[in-house]
Amino acid sequence: MPACEISPEAVEDLQRISDFIAADDPNAAARVTEEFFSAFDQLASWPRSGHLRPDLTDRDVRFWPVRSYLIVYREHERGVQIVAILHASRDIPLILGDR
After folding, report:
1. Per-residue pLDDT, 56
2. What phi and psi, each to the nearest 5 degrees, are found at residue 59?
3. Sheet containing 69-76: order of strands
4. DSSP readout, 63-89?
5. At 13, phi and psi to the nearest 5?
6. pLDDT value at position 73?
7. pTM for this entry
8. Which of 7, 63, 70, 93 has the fewest CB neighbours in a 10 Å radius?
9. How far is CA 35 from CA 59, 66, 76, in A?
């Protein structure tokens, strides 16, 4: 069965997103977190589902949208590694350049 590895940076991203949403609605934060984990499972099973975005980065990563966020991930021999989870309005090229 394909595996999904979540990088420490992506774990931090997920926590920040959850905390931000939970400040207004803890139930909504739980629902969004569940959507992310469902997407992780789907990407592990179908790693080429995401989109290459050469306009955002030249790194070997793909992008998958969940609400107004982008899951940034890469394929590896056992499945996928989640690199980042970013709000789509952020400066993604700058952020990915730092990781």
Report:
1. 92
2. -70, 155
3. 3-6, 79-87, 69-76, 62-66
4. EEEETTEEEEEEEETTEEEEEEEEETT
5. -60, -50
6. 98
7. 0.93
8. 93
9. 25, 7, 22
Structure tokens belonging to residue 63: 């992008």
Distance of CA 91 to the CA centre of its chain: 15
pLDDT score at 12: 98
d(CA 93, CA 95): 6
What domains can be seen in the chain, in order of their start residue? 3-98 (3.30.2310.20)
Site of tokens 């990088």: 7
Q: Are 49 and 33 in contact (CB under 8 A)?
A: no
